[in-house]
Write a sequence for this structure.
């Protein structure tokens, strides 16, 4: 794998920058992670799928909060008008009918208790740390870097295209209704990533800014990878479940 540390040292054309960003995803997106491969291969226990759903909820729940932080720092009203669609996608127009609610439905369809999932109290410490780091990044780094960190959505349709048919085929307790969250996501992710990519390519107009957006995307890929590392460590063969975290036999 490339480290991408000096990818923009001599400056990149717009096309070259896009190529590097897509290479980051090709090499570092979490569809390459062993936990994902075990999932699509039908090798996860129900408890491992439950743990994935419960921990991923923490990430889903923070998305509109990090997007609100990005909105608060954006001076361009046209940017804000486009970006706020992301919050509506996840919260819904009424605050609880969007993507977060659909992820909760996924979790409860796998047998988890809704209140336990929403409380996040059974999530792995590493999950909470990773999600907190992502929120902090989008709050404290430049607007350009925060936008660039969202470019993992470029690769979201790929992992959904791998995950959904495999789960339906290999886990008899998983139905299309269970996975309803994913129905709208490819279209939403493509819309959002098109806008974010255009913004990044326009505003990353110096070698320093180009390197900052590459680093931001690497950081975001690391966040998603670390979350699966934590699941593998806790619920895979090693089964090193931290005190207080979800245990499949006790929901």
């Amino acid at each position: 794998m490339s480290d991408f540390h000096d990818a923009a040292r001599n400056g990149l054309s717009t096309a070259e920058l896009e190529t590097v960003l897509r290479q980051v995803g090709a090499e570092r997106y979490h569809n390459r992670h062993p936990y994902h491969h075990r999932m699509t291969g039908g090798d996860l226990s129900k408890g491992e799928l439950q743990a994935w759903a419960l921990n991923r909820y923490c990430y889903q729940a923070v998305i509109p909060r990090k997007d609100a932080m990005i909105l608060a720092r954006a001076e361009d009203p046209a940017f804000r008008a486009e970006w706020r669609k992301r919050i509506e996608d996840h919260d819904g127009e009424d605050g609880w009918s969007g993507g977060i609610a659909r992820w909760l439905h996924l979790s409860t369809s796998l047998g988890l208790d809704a209140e336990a999932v929403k409380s996040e109290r059974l999530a792995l410490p590493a999950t909470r740390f990773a999600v907190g780091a992502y929120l902090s990044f989008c709050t404290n780094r430049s607007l350009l870097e925060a936008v660039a960190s969202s470019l993992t959505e470029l690769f979201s349709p790929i992992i959904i295209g791998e995950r959904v048919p495999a789960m339906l085929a290999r886990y008899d307790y998983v139905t299309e209704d269970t996975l309803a969250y994913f129905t709208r996501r490819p279209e939403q992710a493509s819309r959002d990533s098109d806008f974010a990519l255009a913004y990044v390519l326009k505003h990353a107009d110096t070698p320093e800014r180009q390197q900052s957006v590459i680093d931001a995307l690497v950081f975001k890929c690391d966040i998603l990878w670390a979350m699966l590392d934590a699941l593998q460590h806790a619920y895979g063969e090693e089964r090193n479940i931290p005190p207080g975290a979800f245990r499949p036999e006790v929901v």
Remarks:
- The CA atoms of residues 49 and 110 lie 8 Å apart.
- The mean pLDDT is 96.
